[in-house]
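step 3/5: co-fold with iron/sulfur cluster
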Amino acid sequence: MDKIQELITENPLESLRNLATSYPGQVAFSTSFGLEDQVITDLISKEKLPIRIFTLDTGRLFGETYKLWQSTIEKYSIEIEAFAPKAEDIQNYIASVGPNGFYDSIENRKECCRIRKLVPLQRALSGVKIWITGIRSEQSPERSHLTQLEKDEANRLWKFHPLLAWDLKMVEDYIKTNQVPYNILHDQGYPSIGCAPCTRAVQAGEDARAGRWWWEADSAKECGLHWKDGKLIPNKKEISDDKSIIHSANKPLPSMTRLDQLESESIYILREVAAQFNRPVLLFSGGKDSITLVHLAKKAFEPGKIPFTLVHIDTGHNFPEALEFRDELVKQFDVKLEIGSVQESIDAGRAVEEKGKFPSRNGIQTVSLLETITRLKADACIGGARRDEEKARAKERIFSVRDVFGGWDPRLQRPELWNLYNGKIHNGENVRVFPISNWTELDVWEYIERENIKLPNLYFTHTRDVLRVDGHLFPVSEFVNLEPSDKVFSAKVRFRTVGDMTCTAAVESEANSLSEIIQEIRDSRTTERGSRLDDKRSEAAMEERKRGGYF
Ligand code: SF4
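step 4/5: write tokens
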């Protein structure tokens, strides 16, 4: 101890240099590509210190982490050794509790960490005398009592935490001054980054590790790599004896509600999009589903900004209330808005206006949509479609690939086993992504009520001039070509779905609050798309439009 202790000074670089030269080939640094780890990698690499750098590739890391890994080895021209779990361990785990079984109990979670991290770590540390880590005291209460140099008796090695006394500002200043590459998730509210399914952004005031295994309300927030008694691999008895874990393995965790599960899945999908694509956009119609998507995107990345540009295809036949709401929402969330204009496509002769009493622009907005996707070079377009809306929508995958012409072939869709979404595409292709595909109309309304999401007043009862056609009440507007025999009258209505004024029918309703709307939907025997004229043109109207590049 004394000899090693003498090599350690207040200067992390000096300490690393002393250790590396005194114990050649026996010093290894484990990186998980956090801010602190990047500082240490920078110190080791610039000085060309003979210290091995390794990482544990759990197979469940964020796409952003893999990108950073790549850019780090390229910037410093170094090797970072990867230690992966054994395929057999993963197969057995999945067969036993499923791919996401770690959400079900502490024991399952620790077993997943054991096979994906602890077992590979043992291999990585074989022959190592001094293990360098990026731990800092202020990261969590559990880390605040550590000393810079610790003896790990069980594994016969020393652990050295060169940045233990650094505060976050010192780390950030170093990163900035030395232009060290870092994980962009840090800018989106992730101070501590581990595996994607087990890490979320933190709120202002939460401690840095609050976003790790957040569902384990009061547990120690450690995966066992730095287990407090110095042993690398706790056995199952030790796990269940760990008094810092409030929910013991024998007690069920507080169960997630249906809305919690739907929200969690959608947020996971949105984060996958941010990780897998370069220029993702969110298609915004001003309807309740796209408003819900924006709310989910906010939650997925808060306290960071929503990392998607909003795209609105302006048909020129919109409800003015929807446009007004759109502009306010853009200001409120401070997001970028791009507009594709159907009128411009018509004026340029690329789209042809329909004739008739209800000249819908719904079909021809595909032209503007595809033009806008091309102009923005968007590789992923997030939409608010749901499977319960319509049978063509029910056929779509969560990640639905469009060819270079924007076309969709329902027979050529990718399997989506468990929750693995494949975003690999060729040049010019793009992916439509449907994060709320598994929600029902009722789920959306209950979620809007639970989260207190603001909506345009079109969704609530109001008095409006309407025209009855085939039992449906169509709003009277400058875009509808009235005939002398048409009988216009005022009625108390609201809209269940909001599209163009020429193709969206209202329903007679007195519902003025979310709870009244929810009750109305529970009692309803028709689907919301039943009030869309554009869907009624043929049995396969939606599928035909989708094959041609529609939303
Ligand atoms: S952090 Fe989550 S996904 Fe990663 S090894 Fe642990 S339980 Fe498994």
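step 5/5: annotate
The CA atoms of residues 495 and 506 lie 5 Å apart.
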